[in-house]
Every structure is written in C-alpha cells, then in structure tokens.
Amino acid sequence: MIAGPLTATHLADFGADVIKLEQPDIGDSMRHWTPMKKGKSLWWKVIGRNKRLVTLSLSHSEGQTLFKRLVATADIVVENYRPGTFERWGLGYDVLSNINPKLVLVRVSGFGQTGPYSGRGGYGTVAEAFSGIPSFTGFPDKPPTLPGFPLADSVAATFAAMSAMFAIYKRDQGGSGLGQVIDVSLHEPLFRLVESQVIGYDQLGIIKKRQGNRLAEDSPRNTYRTKDDEWIGVSASSQKTFERLAEAIGMPELIADPRFVNNVERCANADVLDDIMASWFVRHEKAEIMQLFDTLNVVAGPVLDISEIFQDPHYAARESIVSVPDTDFGEVKMQGVVPKFSKNPGKVRYPGGALGQDNEEVFRDMLGLDETEFKRLKALKVI
Q1: Is 218 a residue of the active site?
Q2: Domain that holds residue 143
C-alpha cells in the first residue's frame, strides 16, 4: 500500500515522469490515511508528489488495453498487488514484455513472488514482525516493539527504487537491451539490514534479545535523561569516541578501568557503565551537555520531536523541509529530496493532487482518445 507508491515517489523526485494509476471514484488507499485537513489526506500530499495522477480500472478489459498502451513506451512499471493478480488480469510479464521488451517490472509484495507464503497478504506491520526485528526491539519486560511509522514499506521502497535503476543501467549500458522482473518483498529488505544476526546465530547460536535502547555490539549506547527532563542519544562504538566521552564527563579514569578498557569489556559490563552515564547526564541540562560535547567532539545528539526539528538550524541549512505551493492549502511543508546530488539535484515540484486530475492529459493528449471515447470510458468507470 505504501511501498509501491513510495518507490515511484523516489523516482519522481529525481525527474522521472511517473503516471500514478488509481481506481476510479475510490482512489489510492493513501488518500484516506490520517492526518486529514478539510477532508484531504496530508499523507497523500507527500506520497503523491511529483506524479501525474490518472484513474484506470485494471480489472476491466478496456482498462487493461489502455494500460498496455501506456506500457508500450514505459521504462518501468511498479506494482504492489498480491502475487498472481497481474497474471489473473492478463498482465503478467510475459504479456507486458512482449509489448515492450525493454520494460522493467518492479513487483512489491508482502512475501515476494515465490515461496510458501507468497500468496499471503502482507502489510508493513506483518513484514516488520516477520523480519524478526521486533523480537530484539524494545525492553525485555515489555512486548516486542514495532516502529512508529511504516518502516518495512519505507525500506522496501528504497531497495525497489535502487533496484529499478540497477536494472535500467544493466539494460542500457552493455547489457542485452532487455528489461527484467524485480521481486521485492516487504520483509527481506529489513532482514538484510540486521547484518550480524544470521552469521551470529549460524556460528555461535546467538539469539538476540530485547535490551531497550542498548546494542549488544557496543557500549555505551543508549538514550539518557537530562536534568531538565530532555533526552540525549549517545553512541561510543569506537575506542576513541569512548575516550572522548569519558574525558568530557570528567571521568578519565574509566579509560583505564579493566571493566571498560575496550569495547568487549564495556559490553560485558554494560549495566555498570550505563548507571555511571545515567547518573552524570541527569545532573546536567541538555543545552549544557550539547555545548560541552560539541566542543570536545563527543558523538551525541538530542532526541528531537517534530516541533524542534522545524526550529533546528541544521535541518534548515540542509533544506530538509521544503515549502511547496498547494491548490488546497496554499502552501504545505514536507520533507525535501534525499539524497542531495551536486549536478542533478531532485526537486519537489508539486504535492499530491486531485483524483484523476491528469486524465485528459494522459488519455486524450498522450494516447489520443477522442472526446466521445473519453466520455464513454469515464461513464463506464474504466477511467
């Protein structure tokens, strides 16, 4: 629901001409996600940005015919239906590649196109649970913790957009000139990110457990409450960063302490080290700590909420938040384009707009439908 559209948004942010297909009358599910303002989804404004928006029923035979005409000149098709749906509609890659051999078909689904679970529906929450990440996220005396935003969809979309570009490069730069299918599940991109989990279990039988904000692999690593009831995140994963931290808090003796002399020992004595850190942080205010740490090059950062992010000078300097003209609300702010290119930077040109707003441009101007045919298909809810 999110991964497929977000894949296309990534491409659109860097100039791809993305035509977003939505069900007539109903529209994309993201149009109905909160928060809402005056009956309009604000989330849609972001995920629908930089796209031409048309309505087209792919379950209708005439809609399938129009889709095939669009496919004929497309580089990439991104679909995120349950596996087998495109085939049931007669839109499998065998059909589409016969129309356009250069086509790259990106297929995003809960569990992938193959395997015993491929037929299951899979939203991001399911994928996050299935990835194993919640089993070691959160506190040991609390339930497994899911992220507070659609992490699985977001990561899968990044992998999918990246993979689409790999396929285009392979096709056009010394390859066969042919497209291919890219199979992206929601859970596997997350599973790929856990790095040492697989090899650690394979070689040592390690099953990682929940331990709050700590990491088993380095210490100290946590969020610490300050005197003014704020929070600061700290990671001292290298020896040098730990030594700078110990000196900054006025405890250089920790560096030579046998319990903390290297990262292996610090991890073995993480409870003791965490107590030492927490007792220091709670005696000092956030601004004082951050000024001290910046001066002494200690790796740390305050925990910010969105109101603080809006006021932060670094976010402003990086143009991480941009203002975009909007037909509904005059102007809206949203995340800028990531990453930043020196020669060909992306741009947020416009936010997600109205359902079917570009139907005439695409179906009449681009595909050449006359007015009579356009109105007939609209009456049939094909478009």
Answers
A1: no
A2: 3-193+322-379
